[in-house]
Design goal:
This protein is an alpha/beta fold. It is built from 4 helices and 5 strands, in the order βαβαβαβαβ. The chain has one domain. A 5-stranded parallel β-sheet has the order 1-2-3-4-5, covered by helices on one side. α1 links the parallel β1 and β2. It is globular.
């Protein structure tokens, strides 16, 4: 895969589980990432995204939008937000989750709101 241009924002759609989502982000230094209909957005991917010190992609990520990506859990997302928040840079400030994906309850939403500047989540219980 070739190198991504120096864009501040990146939108990836229909990235299959068998495709390398981390490969698409390797050496990308933008701050706004939108993932739509990506089966590759799973717990393993979020764990990697939370490893700011060892993963070479998305170190400046501050806004993450996930739309219709059903293969990740709330726990993995929480761990990623927490890990990036502890890093020197690359903390997630704005999070949007829409469509298919995990549901969160009021306590989980409250925790996220305490970590972020803004939160939009369609599937609260």
């Amino acid at each position: 895969m070739g190198r991504l241009p120096g864009t501040a924002a990146l939108r990836l759609e229909n990235i299959a589980l068998s495709d390398s989502l981390p490969g698409h982000l390797k050496n990308w230094y933008g701050g706004v990432l939108t993932l739509v209909l990506c089966d590759g957005v799973n717990d393993e991917f979020l764990d990697m995204l939370g490893s700011v010190s060892t993963f070479s992609g998305a170190p400046n990520l501050t806004k993450l939008t996930i739309v219709d990506c059903p293969n990740f859990t709330w726990e993995a997302l929480k761990k990623m937000v927490e890990a990036r928040g502890k890093a020197k840079k690359g903390a997630i400030e704005d999070l949007i989750v829409r469509g298919r994906g995990p549901t969160i309850d009021a306590d989980e939403a409250s925790w996220l709101k305490g970590q972020l500047k803004s939160l939009e989540w369609d599937t609260w219980v």
